[in-house]
Amino acid sequence: MSFDFVAKLSDFLNKRAEILAKKRYIYCRKQDDFANMRFDLEAFRREVYAVVAAIPRGKVTTYGQIARLAGCPNHARLVGHVLRNTRPALRYPCHRVVNSQGRTVPYWQKQAELLRAEGVVFKSNGCVDMKACGWNLSAE
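The structure corresponding to this sequence follows.
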């Protein structure tokens, strides 16, 4: 590799890191947090996957709860972004994650089918019954 290529790649990666930092600022919306930002997206992704892998069959949890368990309580939307970009080959049970009202992902009808196959109860409005099927960590 030429030195020129390495310098350009380094430049690109630094700019990409700045873009990601600004996106993180949008997610957390804290003015002073932007100035002192040191966010490791890969570590966050690993934490999200570890939490998702621990969700028991027949239970669901929310993006917000995963963000809290991953140590970044203001990053529920980033959890959604991480899960949306998960490769199917990794076989994480991403279908067990719903929004805070119990709604499934729009345009992913298979999610509801997978949840019903696990015995997850849905209310008449199409949302998961969070009281019956929500993953309660304090009960474990």
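DSSP finds seven helices and two strands in the chain.
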